[in-house]
């Protein structure tokens, strides 16, 4: 994002709308730290600028900068997968889409959320370690297309320093590997310099139970009560 200095009247109303604190006011001067800005578009869509001074420059739509808005603005589509909302809608509606079936789990690692942001350098700490440990990274995920093709888990150098509001890494875990992978991944996250929200996608049993809750408790991992649960608006596409 950018501020037109000729239009800006320095009121500072926009500063409260930047989740990452990239918009600051010094006297009558308001500026955006473009290096830290993730191009989420919140300040523009909020419509709080009386002078219409906030705008998105054309160069922000070009690569590698364009990945910022693709991973930060849910209204921008990921061009490779044609997915919206940071590209994980299949996992978050799993009871209908059946992306993860019975006997397996989906592990979601959301880097930078809530409202801290992340550079891909932090995600890379985990993706490279995963490859060394032979833990696969799901290919039908927007992050996969930004990785080097050599299987190292490293991001392509043009993307590695880009900053986004959040990036979700997805893994598929088989029942037998649940404890090993979760404990291994949680250990890796200790070296990551941002907030990481961890989610586990599972299927309800026929009797409405969630056996994985007891398994996580045995690993001393608490389960938050405010999980996202599909309300049954459809039948699973995959058993």
TrEMBL record:
Provide an example Pfam family for this protein.
Answer: Fer4
* Source superkingdom: Bacteria
Signal peptide bounds? none
UniProt KW keywords: 4Fe-4S, Iron, Iron-sulfur, Metal-binding
Question: Would the keyword NAD be found if you checked this record's keyword annotation?
Answer: no
Establish whether keyword Protein biosynthesis is in the entry. no
Domain 4Fe-4S ferredoxin-type: residue ranges:
1-28, 29-59
**Gene3D superfamilies referenced in this protein's UniProt entry, alphabetically:** 3.30.70.20
The cross-references to PANTHER family, in alphabetical order and at most eight, read: ADENYLYLSULFATE REDUCTASE, BETA SUBUNIT, FERREDOXIN III
This chain belongs to the protein called: 4Fe-4S binding protein
């Amino acid at each position: 994002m950018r501020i037109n200095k000729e239009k800006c009247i320095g009121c500072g109303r926009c500063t409260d709308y930047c989740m990452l604190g990239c918009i600051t006011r010094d006297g009558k001067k308001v500026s955006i730290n473009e290096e830290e800005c993730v191009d989420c578009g919140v300040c523009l869509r909020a419509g709080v600028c009386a002078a219409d001074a906030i705008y998105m420059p054309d160069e922000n739509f070009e690569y590698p900068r364009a990945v910022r808005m693709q991973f930060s603005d849910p209204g921008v589509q990921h061009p490779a997968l044609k997915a919206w909302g940071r590209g994980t809608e299949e996992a978050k509606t799993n009871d209908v889409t059946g992306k993860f079936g019975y006997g397996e789990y989906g592990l979601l690692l959301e880097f930078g959320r809530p409202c801290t942001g992340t550079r891909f350098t932090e995600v890379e700490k985990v993706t490279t370690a995963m490859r060394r440990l032979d833990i696969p990274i799901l290919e039908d995920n927007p992050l996969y297309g930004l990785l080097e093709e050599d299987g190292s888990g490293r991001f392509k150098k043009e993307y590695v320093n880009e900053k986004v509001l959040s990036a979700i890494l997805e893994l598929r875990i088989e029942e037998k590997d649940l404890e090993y992978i979760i404990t291994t991944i949680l250990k890796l996250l200790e070296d990551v310099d941002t907030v990481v929200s961890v989610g586990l996608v599972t299927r309800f049993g026929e009797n409405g139970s969630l056996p994985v809750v007891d398994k996580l408790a045995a690993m001393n991992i608490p389960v938050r009560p405010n999980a996202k649960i599909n309300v049954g608006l459809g039948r699973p596409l995959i058993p």
